[in-house]
Each structure stands twice: as C-alpha cells, then as structure tokens.
Amino acid sequence: MVTYSALRIVILGALLGILYGVGMRGWLLPLAAILLAFLVSYLTLRGPREAAARYLADRAAARAERGGRRPGRLARSLDEDAAAEDAETEAPQSDRPKPSSRP
Is 94 part of any domain? Predict the structure, then answer.
C-alpha cells in the first residue's frame, strides 16, 4: 500500500518537473500533472495497485472475522460508550432526567 502511494507521488513529481521544463506554468501545470499522473499510474502500476487492493481486502476480511471489533483499549472504550448510549436511548421516558430550563 505504501509502495503504491509512493510510486504515484513519484510519478506526479516527475510529471510536474517535465511539464514545468517544457514551459507550462500557472494553474494549468498542477491540473495537467494530476490528470496525467492518474493516467500514467493507472496504466503502469497495475501490479502495485492489485497488491494494495489485496492488502485492503485481507484487512477487511480479518475485521469481519473479528465481528467488526477493533483490538485495544480504544475499542473497549468505544464499545463501552456505545453500550451506555444504547442503554440511555432505549430507557423509558420516565427514567430519563428532565432537561433544565436554564440556559
């Protein structure tokens, strides 16, 4: 994933330099470089793009196997907060505190 992103940045930088060298200036320079970098990376970086897609698919599958849970303390805290919020939302109206009328 990092390799694919780094290669795309290198292609963008190279195209910026080439287009600047041939005399393109102003707002058209970055626009043309971005569009050309998209086309060049799409045509030339098939292998790294597919590897990045496999990596992301593997991570999604691993997360699905865990039931969508995240590991670690932050995940526990988020799960506890979500459970408390669910309990408050599902509580009967009479159990809820009344909002104060003072600003």
Answer: no
Q: Is residue 99 part of a domain?
A: no
Number of domains in the chain: 1
Sign of the alpha-carbon dihedral angle for 21, 12, 6, 46: negative
Residue 101: inside a domain: no
Rounded to two decimals, what is the model's pTM? 0.58
Domain that holds residue 25: 2-86
Residue of 99, 9, 13, 5 lying closest to 56 (CA atoms): 5
Q: Rounded CA gap, 82 and 64, in Å?
A: 19
Q: What is the pLDDT of residues 48-101, one digit of tens each?
A: 999 999 998 998 888 878 776 656 667 777 778 888 888 888 776 665 566 666
Q: Is residue 4 a contact partner of residue 49, using CB atoms and an 8 Å limit?
A: yes
